[in-house]
Amino acid sequence: MKKLVVVVSSPPGSGGSTIAKVLAKKLKIKYFSPGEYFKKLSGKKGNETKAALSYLKTKEGASKTLHEHIDKLQIEKAEKGNIVLEGTLSIHFLKELSDCKIWIGASLEKRAERTSRRDGISVEDALKKVGERENMERHLFKKLYGFDYLDQKREADLVIDTSYLTVDQVVNKILKFIKEKGSNLRN
After folding, report:
1. What number is the average pLDDT over the span 75-86?
2. CATH of 5-180, one of 3.40.50.300, 3.40.50.2000, 3.20.20.10, 3.30.70.20
C-alpha cells in the first residue's frame, strides 16, 4: 500500500501550519513541521514570530549545521510516509519524495492581520515583523542553499492563495486535488 507524503510550503503568516495540521487530521496521517521543531530548539515560548526572529538572529539559529540537521530530519520522516510535512523549504527538499507539493500564499496585509491575531500584537507591528522575518529567511536560505524560497511556488503541484479563504475551504481544495490525482500523485 502506497504511503502518502504531502508537502506544504508557504511564507510566514499564510496559514500553512494551520492548514497542514487540519489536513493531516482529515487524512488520518502524521504531521511534522521543521519550523515548529526549529522554534522548540530555540527554547523560546510565546509570540511565535518574535521567537523565530530572535533565534534566527543567533549564531546557532543561523548555522548551516542546524539547518542541515532539520533538513535531514524532514527527509527521514518523508521516507517513512503517511505524513503531511509543512516547512518553508519542504517543497525543495522533498520534491522527489512527495506525492503532492502545495504552495500556500496570501497577501502581506492578510499575513500581517493573521499574525496580529495569533500573536496579540498590532497589525502595524505584525506587518513589520512578518516582513522582517520573510526578508531574514530569504537572505539566510539564499546564503545557505543558493535559492530564494519563494521560487518553490513554481515547483508546486497546487498553488492556493488563502487571502480570502477559510482553513476548511483550503483543506477541501487540497483533499479534492489529492482525490483527483489518485494513483498518479508521485510524478
Report:
1. 97
2. 3.40.50.300
